[in-house]
Amino acid sequence: MPTPDQRLDQLEPIISEMLARLDETAAKVERVSAQVRQLAIAFTTLTNSLTTQSDNIEFLLTRTDALTDKTDALMDKTDALTDKTDALTDKTDALTNRVDSLTTKVDALTDKVEQEVAGLRTDMNQRFDQMLGLLQDKLK
Length: 140
Hints:
Blueprint: H1 4-139
């Protein structure tokens, strides 16, 4: 049977080995803890970046919606102006047709007046010729 000193001598290298392994494990735990802290910091930074990006995307989407609404309003106004322009074009075409019709009527009246004036001139020239003829006859 081993003596207590011998047993202590047997346990001493085992305890020493266990303490050395415990120190290694503690060092590993410390390294892993440091890595976990770095990961936590990186995760927090990433979360903050993602939150900022999410806010930026939300802002851009809001602005895009606002611009889309404004574009739709402008398109509605453009459509209304196009309708008004079409209506004015129709009215202008109708007025042009009326002016053309009136021009045709005025041209016809002008032709009639010119014919009447030509007829009156011919008539007056004949009458003047007759009067001159009568005057000449009386003067002879």
